């Protein structure tokens, strides 16, 4: 079977949507090698995160013709390439599909990651919301099947877009295989020195923005003993100014490190150096950093209220995203209890096995075959 993918973000995005695209392409190529996979992207740039895509034996990369405006090619012109390549199924990996697939008799699947722009419109520009709404609704209407990356997202698609539940399948995503590999003591020591990390610390990974709610950890930190430090890793937004103001006003500068320039290759070591992973986000489509933490063998404390329980499983601990006292008490409870930590680590790794590559690849192929 020839399967095509909208692969712009696989080559150009190095956070959530790009990670998902590269993950799907990799696990299908490795675990379902009987198929041919075609990646359609405006351009295909080589870098440490994308180099492997150029070396997968059953993967072909197709870029936009120079005569085409790249946005026009992605939204319409690519269909001609799909027909010429004999594509049976086209999978839009992040919320959108080109026009003309039905006329070309090409089956289609779209992955919807989240509908956060509808839950929290205040975090998005008016024009961006309008563009998202048009693309998301159109893709859900025209796709033969919709993949939701969590039960939360499935419920949202049904509620906001009034899509028949039978059209939607929940297929979770996994995390990069590097997080399951034990990092050597030498490599951990190098990362510790490189980023000036404490011997023990709380860790939170994710874009530093209002919705992620990192200020809750700072508020909890004020109530915690001075030997408990925090490392925040993620792309900075204006929200970081609010965090820095809080840090200065509450004399936390010696206890908090904010890192925005961490290479992906160093992330597994940082996870494995951490004592507890804290993720107080108000809303997520899934929460892949939680799965990265479980896979790395780190106890997880996360916020309730969206889908984080799906990512963290029954043995992680969940707190209100508005209660810093509850978070502080929960951190102390885990921090001071080695037996609880060990149980959370063991059960967390067991739960993470639900998101292994082979299972997710098989689920994807089964969905493709049943369209």
UniProtKB/TrEMBL annotation:
Keyword Coiled coil attributed: no
UniProt entry keywords in alphabetical sequence: Glycosyltransferase, Transferase
GO biological process, one term: lipopolysaccharide biosynthetic process
Domain Glycosyl transferase family: 187-350
Molecular function in Gene Ontology: glycosyltransferase activity
Domain Glycosyltransferase subfamily 4-like N-terminal residue range list: 36-178
This protein's name: Mannosyltransferase
Organism, scientific name: Pedobacter psychrophilus
Taxonomic classification: Bacteria, Pseudomonadati, Bacteroidota, Sphingobacteriia, Sphingobacteriales
